[in-house]
TrEMBL record:
The keyword Transferase applies. Keywords: Kinase, Transferase. This is Histidine kinase. It comes from the Bacteria. One of its GO terms (biological process) is regulation of DNA-templated transcription. GO terms for molecular function: kinase activity. The keyword Kinase applies.
């Protein structure tokens, strides 16, 4: 059994974590929204609590999200708890698309039934944009190298024919 001191400690850790921490019940209603989550998505806890996770899901992805969410709630199994980080697009309050990575932690009652899922979330938008720019630069350099190779081959062939 947790003592009052332990409860206060846990509450302070959750409240003050830089990463976002969300808990949603089996219906996908937000029941916990810490200050890290406020910073990532732009919504205050007062605005987010009791709302559907649709609040942060981009409009073109809800069917895929809900299919996976309900499957996890029914089976009590997720691959995004221990090994795999899940990287997905999300929606900021201002309407902009952000990139997040998270791990899920399923929460069970004493009888073993799923109560919902907690997610530990990190905003990786900057990193994702930097990686995208790097891939584009690599593609540009590959194209230039291919062109130089063609020019070099053409020059060599011209010299051989003389």
């Amino acid at each position: 059994m947790l003592t009052y001191t332990h409860k206060c400690l846990y509450q302070q850790i959750v409240d003050n974590a830089y990463d976002g921490i969300i808990f949603a019940d089996t219906k996908g209603l937000i029941r916990l929204w810490n200050s890290g989550t406020e910073a990532i998505f732009g919504y205050s806890a007062e605005k987010a609590l009791g709302q559907s996770l649709d609040l942060i899901i981009p409009e073109r992805f809800p069917a895929r999200h809900w299919e996976a969410y309900h499957r996890v709630m029914e089976t009590g199994v997720t691959k995004h708890a221990h090994e795999d980080l899940l990287g997905v697009p999300a929606l900021h309050k201002d309407g902009s698309r952000i990139s997040i990575e998270f791990r899920m932690v399923l929460v069970f009652d004493d009888a073993g039934s799923v109560l919902g899922a907690a997610a530990i979330i990190r905003d990786v938008t900057k990193r994702w944009q930097q990686e995208k720019e790097l891939r584009e630069q690599i593609d540009t350099l590959k194209a230039k190298l291919k062109e130089l190779s063609k020019m070099s081959s053409h020059t060599a062939n011209s010299a051989d024919s003389k």
